[in-house]
């Protein structure tokens, strides 16, 4: 009996954020004028502001996956002319997001995503670039390799990115994941959950 099917799929979501112009000015007012603050903060001062601005999108993506997510870390990149971020991923587990805060589709390129396997007919590398505009946000698996191409314009390209994990998994496996720091880390996670409501875990 013939049975054709796809056996692997990559979860991915693309949203346009409501009331973007108002939210854009609020977010930009929180960011410094440098390339990135990655690694500068355990929890950046703008995390709560950004989380509130994308509350609806976070809720919807959690509902789509059918488990609650919590933001673990957040940073921004402000790419001036020739700046880029080479191919990388955000770890082997969890989900990540890129929000396009300052982005002109006429002069800027969106994120390039790399398929984890080659074209089955040619063996060539497969890529995907979402059709994004300013105020869009995309969610994808953290293990998904991607890059920010060089900015060939004198217009600044600004993104905010963050990583997320399954809240219940973090609580259940806290000792295995965080060792002696488990209680301290879980308290910080609980504080984040309190201001970013997500669907309850009902499996």
How is this structure best described in words?
- This protein has helices at residues 20-28, 47-53, 55-65, 167-172, 174-178, 182-195; strands at 13-16, 69-79, 85-88, 95-102, 112-114, 127-128, 136-141, 146-148, 157-166.
- By secondary structure, the chain is α+β, with helices and mostly antiparallel strands.
- It has a single domain, classed as q2cbj1_9rhob like domain (Jelly Rolls, Sandwich).
- It has a 5-stranded antiparallel β-sheet.
- The radius of gyration is 18 Å and the shape is globular.
- The relative contact order is 0.23.
Task: Note the gap between the termini.
Answer: 34 Å
Give the rounded overall mean pLDDT.
Answer: 87
Number of domains: 1
By helix and strand content, what is the structural category? Answer: alpha+beta
Biggest sheet: strands side by side, in what order? Answer: 1-7-4-9-2
CATH homologous group name: q2cbj1_9rhob like domain
The level-1 CATH class:
Mainly Beta
Task: Indicate the proportion of strand residues.
Answer: 25-35%
Proportion of helical residues: 25-40%
CATH architecture: Sandwich
Low confidence ranges: 195-203
Oligomer class: single chain
Please, how many helices? 6
The name of the CATH topology is: Jelly Rolls
